[in-house]
Amino acid sequence: MSIRRATIADVAREAGVSPSTASVVFSGKTPVSDATRRRVLDAAEALGYTGPDPLAASLRRGRSGIVGVVFEEHLGRAFQDPVKILMMDGLTESVAGMGAGLLLLRDQGDEPGAPSLTTAPVDAAVLVGCSGILRESLDVVRARGIPVVVIEGDAGDGIPRVGLDNRDAQRQAANHVRSLGHERVALVTLPVRSGWPGGWIDSDARITVDVTRDRLQGARDVYPDAPAYAAAGSFIDEGLAAGRVIFADPASRPTAVLAQSDLLAAGVVRAAEEAGLRVPEDVSVTGFDGIVVDGLAPYELTTIVQPTVDKGRAAGQAVVAMLRGEAAASISFTCEFRAGNTTAPPRG
Amino acid sequence: MSIRRATIADVAREAGVSPSTASVVFSGKTPVSDATRRRVLDAAEALGYTGPDPLAASLRRGRSGIVGVVFEEHLGRAFQDPVKILMMDGLTESVAGMGAGLLLLRDQGDEPGAPSLTTAPVDAAVLVGCSGILRESLDVVRARGIPVVVIEGDAGDGIPRVGLDNRDAQRQAANHVRSLGHERVALVTLPVRSGWPGGWIDSDARITVDVTRDRLQGARDVYPDAPAYAAAGSFIDEGLAAGRVIFADPASRPTAVLAQSDLLAAGVVRAAEEAGLRVPEDVSVTGFDGIVVDGLAPYELTTIVQPTVDKGRAAGQAVVAMLRGEAAASISFTCEFRAGNTTAPPRG
DNA sequence: ACAGGGTATCGAATCGATTCGACGCAAAGC
DNA sequence: GCTTTGCGTCGAATCGATTCGATACCCTGT
């Protein structure tokens, strides 16, 4: 019931050794005689000392063991995205190997007093997202001289990024659809910018989200004139909404829909069912991501499989490398096309 | 390109003021003349000083602005649970109000060097989970004298917990089913302990997970002899697996299944469809949680709605209160029964 | 012109540990 | 017996900021 928690100095005094020795007993950086170790440990026990204060230790070491993960959206929303979850999974795994933990942060200067990259004791940062909003975080982080890795975003300069061959991959899916003989194709894309409400976009639309733009280009490489509906987010519901619009007019119905995510594709499939269209007989649908979509059975999406977990892991490894002073290079992962049962030649 | 980052002392010197004044310019704790503020800010700008070092500031203040969230399972897995996500959402929101961020931690002493409650600079901790494993984290946290809140778990002592009236709520659902006239009922529960592979459990089974036990008791209050299949986790797939087993033998088929989560219930519904049973005509199904289950349309589960986000928010508020020195009390939330279209009287 | 009051700034102590060169002492080598 | 070696321990500086009582200063009231 001491009014003040015991410090290592107290422990040292109690044990009759110098603070440096006591410190070393806990850190193990230097050999200590068994007798001394015992005395210090006993003293600690007696005083209720549970180990060095993490803050003080971090200050001295100049390292907190915390990696900030910055999202550009509401956290609850980010975690609804299976791709981000899997990515976090890989990230957690690789930084844990370094003894680091993940601090959840949101890009955004609005709420004053909210935790941010400026005020959080992070050793490094991982920026997750696509839009340009993250620039802000990037500036902060660069000014502070903190190692940073960007996942799925444009970093510029010498900032390592973990990316995907989005355009090539999407083109591959589009080519698959074309080779099946489809001519009338519609595209369902991810949001074109943060806050996008959903709706058709024309070919000269400003797209600030890199992923959306790259995948769209891949599709346009094959179908330059395909109409594109940009959803409000990567959710089944949004795909459903998009699909309803796309299938609304029987006269202009496409025979194939290329969606930029599996969840969107799942929604499109559902919309097709609603409209009385059979998949893949009446309409083919492709996705992107290669995740397991709950409740889509017996459909198996024809999709592009991306190495989600690996992306996170790579980001973590890059961060760890930079923390060790090594220079980390950008890395681009390659997707793999996977044929499912949601694509087939068009009828007639 | 200085070899060493500028400190506030450097800025003060450059601006020709004392360190204390410079500090105050950034913290705003004390009024500063406009002229001085300008000089300090300019000096900072010139030196590339971006603000106080968070670690040093934290040490001095004795507060890091970080709340640790401890899960008892693999993080990737925890985030697959919509209930936990929603809870995190509420938690994030309420601690952000205090300017704090969330540090993801996993209970578990195995990996040495992995980030843990012992070594992480957290002001407070929120333990999420149900099993007894968290005891370990609890001890650590108590020894360190850190405020802690437990969500859905037994804390003992004076540790505030955020709970749910699981037993009452489940009993309510069971009563609903009984009032419809069902006699032969099967239960699908959450895991009985961490690492549980899934399978039937008998009535004297040891259940270390509080939530599972409480909800099971609620069901048993009404159906003392109902067979119970404990799933390996709260997933549609697990519910599907459980349902397949339950519906396997036509002779012993129940007319109703009470599942301990909506995802499990969704899986059970699917299993029923697979077995050629119509829901709710041939078999009634109830869930628990009240979340939106993607892909379950047109079914609307008869379920127990729990205030998920509120739970997280309450935990955050409790933590904030304790950090302010106030004593936080345990709080138990009440669920609400919601009738959907997955329950009906048994046939014949 | 001087006491009184309010502001803005300063000094110095402090938060709690880590680090590294110096040092003491005992065993070993010649 | 005296120097060398080496292991263990100690001192003191340091990490970078915050805090608060003290101080200097300017303005006002009489």
Overview of the structural elements:
The structure is a homodimer of 348-residue chains. The first copy, chain A, is of the alpha/beta class and 348 residues long. Among the domains of chain A are: 1-51, 434 Repressor (Amino-terminal Domain) (Orthogonal Bundle), CATH 1.10.260.40; 164-306, Response regulator (Rossmann fold), CATH 3.40.50.2300. The first copy, chain A, has twelve helices and 13 strands. Chain A has helices spanning 8-15, 19-27, 34-47, 54-61, 75-78, 82-96, 134-143, 166-180, 210-222, 236-246, 262-274, 308-323, and strands spanning 66-71, 101-106, 124-128, 148-151, 161-164, 185-189, 199-201, 228-230, 256-259, 284-286, 303-305, 331-333, 336-338. The first copy, chain A, has a six-stranded parallel sheet with strand order 2-1-3-4-5-12, sandwiched between helices. In chain A, helix 11 links the parallel strand 9 (256-259) and strand 10 (284-286). At the A-B interface, helix 4, helix 6 and strand 2 of A face helix 4, helix 6 and strand 2 of B. Strand 2 of chain A pairs antiparallel with strand 2 of chain B. The first copy, chain A, binds a DNA duplex (30 and 30 nucleotides) through residues 7-9, 17-21, 23-24, 26-27, 29-33, 36, 52-53, 55-62.
Instruction: Indicate the proportion of strand residues of chain A.
Output: 5-15%
CATH architectural category of the domain at 164-306 in chain A: 3-Layer(aba) Sandwich
User: What's the CATH class label of the domain at 164-306 in chain A?
Assistant: Alpha Beta
CATH topology grouping of the domain at 164-306 in chain A: Rossmann fold
The overall strand count of chain A is 13
Helices and strands of chain A, in order, run as HHHHEHHEEHEEHEEHEHEHEEHEE
Calculate the terminal CA-CA distance of chain A, rounded to whole Å. 84 Å
Which overall shape of chain A is indicated by the principal axes computed on the Cα atoms? elongated
Average pLDDT level of chain A? 91
Number of helices in the DSSP assignment of chain A = 12
Question: What is the helix content of chain A?
Answer: 25-40%
Q: Most extensive interface: pair and counts?
A: A-B, 56 and 57 residues
Instruction: Tell me which oligomeric state these chains represent.
Output: homodimer
Rg of chain A, nearest Å = 26 Å
Spatial ordering of strands, largest sheet of chain A: 2-1-3-4-5-12
Class by alpha and beta content of chain A: alpha/beta
Q: Could you name the ranges of chain A where pLDDT drops below 50 across 5 or more consecutive residues?
A: none
The biggest beta sheet of chain A is recorded as: 6 strands, parallel
